[in-house]
Amino acid sequence: MVDADLLQAARDALGRSHAPYSRFHVAAAVRAHDGRVFVGVNVENASYGLTVCAERVAVFSAVAAGATQLEQMALTTEPAPTLPEHSMPCGACRQVMAEFMQPSAGVLVDRVGSFQLAELLPHPFVLSP
Ligand code: THU
Q: 18 FRET partner, CA 20 to 30 A, in 52, 55, 70, 78?
């Protein structure tokens, strides 16, 4: 179960999304094992392929602060008339989440619902035996 305050943290970060090209603003918040919360927003670039998704920014921010056990993620997007109302995490982000989140970890997608990471990525790539 993902706590409502985590979704609020993502919503609070949404205004910092840098998405001048797609205009599709995304924000994510993760809660670490020790209770700390880290947020991320999508950061686009004029060289489009350099764009990084909000989920990965949140996860990498947590890891850079020493938080490598992440228990929950909340995700939100900005509704706009010509864009999708919501977004599920992309495949690349699901694989990155699987590196630091247990299969049972909760993922709350705003206006969509709650999932366990294993539902989103049942067979992640792993190197550990
Ligand atoms: N985006 C995310 O932030 N997360 C996803 O899981 C999928 C896509 C962003 C990347 C880009 O800035 C915009 O959404 C449109 O693809």
A: 70
